[in-house]
């Protein structure tokens, strides 16, 4: 009888593996993703099947539908003050990003680089302390540590003086956030929506689809977006990671309303509540100000907006493509775009951290270095601590800062935000910032075959999983 049960169990496992492989093949958005899952499922089913059940299926149709309904519902209700039509500009450089993100390119903005955690949180805390009517805050990671509690103290102080506060974090990124921390905020009157709590639609979203956005909006007049999360590591207090190199962007002008729109969409998706009539939709423009546009991207989009964002930026370059990202796991399209840009004579540079915070993406990057270097792409590895910024400079006039990494997760799986700025003076500041980072980096001049055997073998194996990283 035990032999019969063994046979039946084996057949059941075989059927489950076959079913998962079939689902991976028919539902994957790219052939590479389908192949990666199929190989993983067949080679290591005892690990791959549970992983696929948790992480697989590129898009959950019901969640895609629900988020699109949220976007439609918020768009249909419109903004109380109306769109900022006088500030909409016609910019060939921003046109494709406007189409991708569904937001108009608007002039009348100011943009300031916030380099590293001290500058970023000094600006965010000052804005919260000066808030008069409301604060919208969204982060991938909020930790119950010194910085996290300083952040909570300011939100609570704002709520105590009558400011309305809305706060969102991600269930995966903030998995360690204590119940006491959440209760302290809620007790003070902060409208806090942790996706782990309650039965809202987003709480049932696959853990593979994460809200990686990091946005603060104050009174509809000031906003910040970029790579920093709310945790001690992001101000260099982690003894393991050490110095933390990151970049945020402080904004004023009409683009603030675009970031505000992204927040209310996510809030409605999490809660079903509309809050736009409680917000200010008339940000004070700067004269003349600079043109900018926000690009929201995520797994519920009609297109792979994240991947198309980078492809559009790179293929539109004529002289320069500088990309700073903590991870480098390109897909076929972004890899080809980088090579084509280098082959046509652009100065293409990729700035990455020399050390790893997530080992598999760090290892997989080595499998792509030779291919892009042979086309003329320069790889720089930042050596003064860990670099986490997400920034891009195209030619001498186009810059982007936000939350999207140069990897498949940001291309297709995460909800991300990038702000694109069309301005030469701002691009000069971006150039100086990134050039300084490169002086604290080593240029990679070794091919894969000259690396340690662990990297040689591991990189080639990990590349098979690139669509999942």
TrEMBL record:
Q: Name one GO biological process term.
A: cardiolipin biosynthetic process
**Domain of life from the UniProt record:** Bacteria
> SMART domains, from UniProt?
PLDc (SM00155)
Give the EC number(s) listed in the UniProt record. Answer: 2.7.8.-
Please give the Pfam families that the UniProt record associates with this protein. Answer: PLDc_2
Q: What keywords are assigned to this protein?
A: Cell membrane, Membrane, Repeat, Secreted, Transferase, Transmembrane, Transmembrane helix
All copies of domain PLD phosphodiesterase, residue ranges: 207-234, 383-410
Cellular location(s): Cell membrane; Secreted
Q: Which GO terms describe its cellular component?
A: extracellular region; plasma membrane
- InterPro entries, from UniProt? Cardiolipin_synthase (IPR022924), PLD-like_dom (IPR025202), PLipase_D/transphosphatidylase (IPR001736)
Q: Which GO terms describe its molecular function?
A: cardiolipin synthase activity
Give TM regions. Answer: 33-55
Predominant location: membrane
What task does this protein carry out?
Could be a virulence factor.
Under what name is this protein listed?
Answer: Cardiolipin synthase
Q: Which organism is it from?
A: Pseudotabrizicola alkalilacus
| Gene behind the chain | cls
């Amino acid at each position: 009888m035990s032999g019969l049960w063994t046979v039946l169990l084996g057949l059941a496992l075989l059927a489950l593996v076959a079913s998962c492989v079939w689902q991976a093949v028919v539902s994957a958005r790219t052939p590479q993703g389908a192949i990666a899952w199929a190989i993983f499922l067949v080679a290591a089913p005892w690990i791959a099947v549970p992983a696929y059940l948790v992480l697989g299926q590129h898009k959950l149709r019901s969640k895609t539908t629900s988020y699109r309904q949220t976007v439609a519902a918020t768009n249909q209700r419109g903004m109380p003050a109306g769109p900022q039509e006088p500030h909409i500009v016609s910019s060939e450089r921003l046109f494709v990003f406007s189409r991708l993100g569904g937001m108009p390119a608007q002039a009348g903005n100011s943009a300031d680089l916030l380099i590293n955690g001290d500058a970023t949180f000094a600006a965010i805390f000052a804005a919260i302390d000066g808030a008069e009517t409301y604060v919208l805050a969204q982060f991938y990671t909020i930790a119950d540590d010194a910085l996290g509690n300083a952040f909570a103290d300011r939100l609570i102080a704002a709520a105590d003086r009558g400011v309305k506060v809305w706060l969102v974090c991600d269930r995966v990124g903030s998995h360690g956030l204590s119940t006491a921390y959440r209760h302290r905020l809620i007790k003070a009157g902060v409208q806090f929506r942790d996706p782990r709590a309650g039965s809202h639609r987003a709480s049932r979203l696959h853990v593979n689809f994460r809200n990686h956005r990091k946005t603060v909006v104050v009174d509809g007049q000031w906003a910040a977006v970029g790579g920093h999360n709310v945790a001690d590591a992001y101000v260099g207090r982690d003894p393991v990671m050490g110095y933390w190199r990151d970049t945020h962007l402080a904004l004023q002008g009409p683009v603030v309303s675009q970031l505000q729109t992204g927040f209310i969409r996510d809030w409605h998706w999490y809660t079903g509540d509309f809050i736009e009539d409680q917000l200010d939709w008339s940000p004070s423009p700067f004269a003349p100000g600079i043109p900018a546009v926000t690009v929201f991207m995520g797994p519920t989009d009609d297109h792979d907006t994240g991947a198309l964002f980078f492809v559009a930026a790179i293929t539109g370059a004529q002289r320069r493509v500088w990309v700073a990202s903590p991870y480098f796991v390109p897909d076929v399209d972004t890899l080809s775009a980088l090579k084509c840009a280098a082959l046509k004579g652009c100065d293409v540079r990729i700035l990455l951290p020399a050390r790893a915070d997530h080992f598999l993406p760090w290892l997989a990057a080595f499998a792509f270095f030779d291919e892009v270097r042979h086309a003329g792409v320069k790889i720089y590895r930042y050596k003064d601590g860990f670099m986490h910024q997400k920034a891009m400079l195209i030619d001498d006039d186009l810059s982007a800062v936000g939350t999207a990494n140069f990897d498949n997760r940001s291309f297709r799986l995460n909800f991300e935000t990038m702000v694109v700025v069309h301005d030469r003076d701002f691009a000069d500041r971006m150039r100086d910032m990134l050039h300084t980072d490169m002086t604290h980096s080593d240029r990679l001049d070794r091919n894969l075959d000259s690396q340690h055997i662990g990297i040689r073998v591991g990189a080639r194996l990990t590349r098979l999983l690139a669509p999942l990283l």
